[in-house]
Design a protein that fits this description.
The chain has about 110 residues and is an all-alpha fold. About 75% of the residues lie in helices and about 0% in strands. The chain has one domain: Orthogonal Bundle (Helix Hairpins). About 15% of the residues are buried.
Length: about 110
């Protein structure tokens, strides 16, 4: 499962130096934070609507879009899926309540 995340990370990195008209991701990068953030918000909304519809295939499709655009955001900010996976590994076995309290949340 990690292979696809690694390949996607490499592709996203390669698009950073590309001409904006050469790919969708290069175009998003050229537009900057606001355009990328707008796509993440849009995709999150579509995930919510798909979840309410009850169509598992549609939900899977929309979550894939959300993950993809989240990975674009991560790459734009100098991060990757591995950073998120490492954070999830750090949290493994820790109560959600305990983890939130460690960040000062309730």
């Amino acid at each position: 499962m990690n292979d696809i995340l690694q390949r996607l990370t490499e592709t996203l990195e390669s698009r950073k130096g590309a001409v904006a008209d050469s790919s969708y991701v290069a175009k998003l990068y050229s537009k900057g934070d606001d355009a990328i953030l707008k796509k993440v918000i849009e995709e999150a909304g579509e995930v919510l609507l798909a979840a309410k519809d009850g169509d598992k295939q549609h939900l899977t499709y929309e979550v894939a879009d959300l993950w993809f655009h989240s990975m674009v955001l991560l790459a734009h900010k100098g991060l990757s899926a591995n950073d998120v996976l490492n954070e999830l590994a750090r949290r493994e076995g820790v109560s959600g309540i305990t983890e939130k309290e460690s960040r000062g949340e309730r």
